[in-house]
Design goal:
Shape: elongated
CATH architecture of the largest domain: Orthogonal Bundle
Number of helices: 19
Strand order of the largest sheet: 2-3-4-1-5
CATH class of the largest domain: Mainly Alpha
Distance between the termini: 19 Å
CATH topology of the largest domain: Arc Repressor Mutant, subunit A
Largest sheet: 5 strands, parallel
């Protein structure tokens, strides 16, 4: 199901019509292939010829030419020489007025061709590709989940790869409201759909997998447990996890419990490959990084992967455990949003009230006895913001927020500057500051955070 990528479609279509060479990045399941399929369909409808190549399925170089032959209806001399294949591919594409070529997960092609004669490694493949696309007058898109798989093979790969592209475009997660449309599109009832939205965190593949399982299981928490222990997502995450370097696996395990500073990771992981592992996970978009003065804070961006890691490493099979973790995914996203505020900003709430906050010094999630505090943020000017967070109605959170305010005063002597109800889907009139998806996305846009 394709939902709301209108701005991305318009931008990329315009660039391709101008003959731009584009690198499309984004983690697996984010919708790169679906986006390009939609764009190519629209271009074809406008009379612009396109060619789509799935490099993961190129078991032999000749498959590229077979695809070209299918597209053009032209008989093509088949060869297994990768150099000749690429030369033929671009030559015939120009002869047949193909104006856009899409290489999906092109790093697979580079790695495979680099092992074959006459190439002598990945650098030769990249140099040849760069030469061919520079002569090709049409637009070219290379999609990839990560380029770091080439970094061990290609010296100075970042400089060499950068010279290939006019545009580098990173595809972000869908907003949670758009994710809800996907899940409800499968007939999932509203309340249960909201729970699955928390789990999928804006990744279309996750949302569709969960929605399909729900149709059989009919319970949202049990659906998530089913998918993460026996379903398609379990196999997907296991394949990712087992393919990662040991240091990268350990990073995921640590960050699954909450954000950590670089110094903490160094203490926990005695491995010289830690810097590369962090860079690798950042490139995969599994983790994020926030710089704070002289330190860096790392956090897990892929919330569902984090839940799977805990289930897998702690050998949990209780859906009640998942029920406790799911709200934490949205809560942690909001804490990361506030932690990313690096300058003073003005925020207008759902009711028109204004607050000024930032730069943020630290963000906490803590317990005071039996009182849990979802959000406690401190800025560099000494202002304190305390908040209660929910995906649904904030009405039931008002009483909890009042308890939190009293506990802070009684136990820590803290009087918050701002008290905030954060509710993604619903707003209410309240004496507290109220933030819904509109206000949260306004903050995200101001500070360069991902859409929420």
């Amino acid at each position: 199901m394709f939902i709301n990528r209108d701005s991305e479609i318009q931008f990329l279509k315009k660039a391709l019509k101008m003959g731009k060479k584009i690198l499309l990045k984004g983690k697996r399941g984010i919708g790169k292939s679906a986006l390009m399929k939609k764009i190519l369909e629209e271009l074809e409808a406008e009379g612009i010829r396109t060619l789509s190549l799935d490099c993961q399925r190129v078991s032999m170089p000749s498959r590229l030419l077979l695809k070209l032959s299918e597209k053009t209806g032209r008989e093509v001399t088949i060869s297994e020489n990768p150099y000749e294949v690429l030369e033929t591919l671009f030559r015939i594409s120009m002869e047949e007025d193909i104006s856009v070529i899409f290489f999906d997960e092109f790093t697979y092609l580079v790695r495979d061709f680099s092992r074959r004669n006459p190439y002598r490694g990945s650098e030769s493949v990249i140099a040849h590709l760069r030469s061919l696309i520079s002569e090709f007058e049409g637009g070219v898109v290379f999609a990839s989940s990560t380029l770091l798989s080439l970094s061990k093979l290609v010296r100075g790969y970042e400089r060499r790869m950068a010279r290939m592209f006019d545009v580098v475009f990173k595809l972000e997660n869908l907003t949670l409201s758009d994710t809800l449309k996907i899940i409800k599109g499968y007939g999932v009832p509203d309340n249960d759909a909201v729970i699955l939205v928390e789990a999928s965190d804006g990744v279309p593949f996750y949302a569709e997998s969960l929605a399909l399982s729900y149709l059989r299981v009919k319970n949202p928490e049990e659906t998530v447990m089913e998918e993460l222990t026996r379903g398609a997502l379990s196999e997907y995450f296991r394949a990712i996890y087992t393919d990662l370097p040991i240091a990268a696996r350990r990073i995921l395990e640590i960050l699954a419990t909450g954000p950590k500073t670089y110094q903490t990771l160094v203490r926990e992981i005695a491995d010289d490959t830690l810097p590369f592992a962090l860079k690798y996970l950042l490139e995969l978009d599994f983790i994020g990084k926030i710089k704070k003065q002289k330190t860096a804070i790392y956090y897990l961006k892929d919330k569902l992967l984090g839940i799977w890691v805990r289930i897998y490493t702690e050998e949990i099979r209780d859906s009640a455990f998942v029920a406790k973790l799911l709200p934490l995914a949205f809560e942690s996203l909001i804490r990361e949003l506030f932690l990313s505020i690096k300058r003073e900003i003005e925020i207008t709430d759902y009711q028109g009230k204004k607050l000024v906050f930032g730069p943020v010094e630290r963000v906490e999630h803590l317990r005071l006895g039996d009182i849990e505090i979802n959000l406690l943020a401190h800025d560099e000017k000494g202002r304190i913001l305390v908040g209660e967070i929910t995906m649904g109605s904030p009405q039931k959170k008002i009483q909890q927020l009042n308890k939190v305010i009293k506990a802070l005063k009684d136990k820590l002597g803290i009087s918050p500057t701002y008290t905030v109800l954060i509710s993604y889907f619903q707003g209410i009139k309240s004496d507290h500051i109220v933030l819904t998806r509109k206000e949260l996305n306004s903050i995200a846009k101001k500070i360069g955070f991902r859409p929420i």
